[in-house]
Amino acid sequence: MPRTLDASPVAGAPPALTPQSLALLELLAFVYLQNRRPDNAATLLEALLATGAANERACGALALAQLRIGRPGAALTTLERATLRTRLEPAFQLLRAQALGALHRPDEAAAAMAAFVDARRARATAAPHA
User: Fold this and answer.
1) How many CB atoms lie within 10 A of CB 93?
2) How far is C-alpha 119 from the chain's CA centre?
3) Would you list the domain boundaries of the chain?
4) Contact between 48 and 59 (Cβ < 8 Å)
5) Could you tell me the CATH superfamily of domain 19-126?
6) HSE-up (13 A, CA, CB side) for residue 107
7) Which of 3 and 10 is assigned the larger pLDDT?
8) Rounded to whole angstroms, how far apart are CA atoms 75 and 96?
9) 36 φ, ψ to 5°?
10) CA 35: distance to chain centroid?
């Protein structure tokens, strides 16, 4: 039977998750999101983020889960943390617009939505036509 946790190199530190375990957490969170359980998804994704192993996709999924459970401020913070590591993808702009709208910040929400539309338009014109 394969182990899901590696022994920690530091005495007293929690065991490190394997890459397979991290991928399984992300997959399970996605399943929870797809089955209308954003609270469970958020819990898993927050744990994944706490390990430092969360990628851009996991951060976006966490922001979406936070929006769905009525935590737009947390979603905005998650998105801001994610953008410190990478450029803001169009989907993140859309999530940002939704969070700002839920926080009653219409001017910023409109700007984020305009950035989303511009980014999608730029991506569509840059893509080769089949």
Assistant:
1) 22
2) 19
3) 19-126
4) no
5) Tetratricopeptide repeat domain (1.25.40.10)
6) 0
7) 10
8) 8
9) 55, 45
10) 17
Q: 82: which residues sit within 8 A by CB, 6+ positions away?
A: 56, 59, 60, 63, 92
On the question of pLDDT at 30 being above 50, the answer is yes
The token pair that represents 83 in the structure block: 């953008």
Q: Looking at this protein, which amino acid is placed at residue 34?
A: Q
Report the helix count and the strand count for the chain, using DSSP H and E. 6, 2
DSSP letter assigned to residue 10? S
pLDDT reported for residue 51: 84
Tell me the per-residue pLDDT of 47-96, one tens digit each, with 9 for 90 and over: 988 888 788 889 999 999 999 999 999 999 999 888 766 667 888 999 99
Amino acid sitting at position 4: T
Q: Which residues of 7-43 are buried (b: 16+ CB within 10 A; e: fewer)?
A: eeeeeeeeeebeeebbeebbeebbebbeeebbebbbe
* Amino acid present at 71: R
**Are 66 and 74 within 8 A, CB to CB?**
yes
Per-residue pLDDT band at 100 (split at 50, 70, 90): very high
**How much is the pTM?**
0.79
